[in-house]
Write a structure and sequence with these properties.
This protein has about 160 residues and is an all-alpha fold. The protein is built from 7 helices and no strands. The chain has one domain: Cytochrome Bc1 Complex, Chain D, domain 2 (Orthogonal Bundle). The protein is globular, with a radius of gyration of 16 Å.
Amino acid sequence: MATRYFLLLLITGMVFGCGEAASPVKNSVQSLFGNKEARVVRNLDAAQIERGEVVYLANCVNCHGQNGEATPDWRKTGEDGRYPPPPLNGTAHAWHHSTEVLKKTILKGGPPEFGSMPAWEGILTEQQVDDVIVWIKSLWPDEIYDVWYRNFENAE
């Protein structure tokens, strides 16, 4: 368990410590798991992805962007001291969290001292939240999904 957290912290440091997001992530993943041709096979339900995209476009797009890209300055706090919404497309930290944590964040909202993520409990159904999470995961590059899966879904 401690090894998984160390690896996650190592990857996080590599991602946030570098100017180019895609290349360092790919290189760090390759160095951790080797340059594998065989990645985790995604078993995401196409219908759930479609439903999730509809819910996302109706409720999340204004803050997180059309394709989960958010704003370029998402790492900088605003005048209120809070961070803007982060990207969800694999270039930020959403993949650093388990499905359970992502679901809780959507339902309960984010910590108000850090950002302005509202609580969607009572507005979105749990099925809609699950669908949105699957759609978000479908945006992640294969290397990111692979690391996420190995750390969260395939945890012992």
